[in-house]
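Handoff note, outgoing to incoming analyst
You'll be picking up this chain. Sequence as last confirmed:
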Amino acid sequence: MKIKNTRVYGLEESIIRSGYPMQVGEPVTLPDEKTKWISKIEWDIQKTGENKDLNRAEKLAKVPSGTGHDNFLKGIIVQCDLQYPEYFSPQLQRYSWVDIVSSQSKMHKIMSKHLTQEDFTGSVPNDYIEFLNRNIDDKCFRKVINCLPSGYLKWMGISTNYLQLKTIYNQRKNHKLEEWRDFCNWIKELPLANELIINDNDKKKD
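Most recent structure output, in case you need it:
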């Protein structure tokens, strides 16, 4: 699985907002996103070795999902593009907070070129690819769609959040499908993933 163009939004803002349940009055004013500024969290860690907002968020993030204490993780939005085989998509869509922003379409483009091994995950018999290409040449759209292997690769852009990724990592990190293990390895590389997504037991195993 290939993943690119990863973007993370609302990381520091959501960490700060994790403290709202124990506050009264007007919240602190956050810096404008267009203003260049040194992250308050990074600045505190550089100066003192810790940050009270991050310490609190890490403790809240470690509670089991469903308790509500880790709800602030929903505010940390993640977007990316990923190349996936078709058999992966139905499993990904089972998660409520993974939205497909846009994806490449078989309906529009499957007949636009000949297929090769690079269009599939794993290995597809060459004579089968030749069969599909003959039907592409003959404009037999229905036959191509019906016979297309589920390992056919496409790209899609998704939007999700740290709370959903916490659940996905816990459920899929040891999955028998390589694609899920690749996806979980990508999760591990996100900013503050060890502190907010992966619990201490997971880190020791990894």
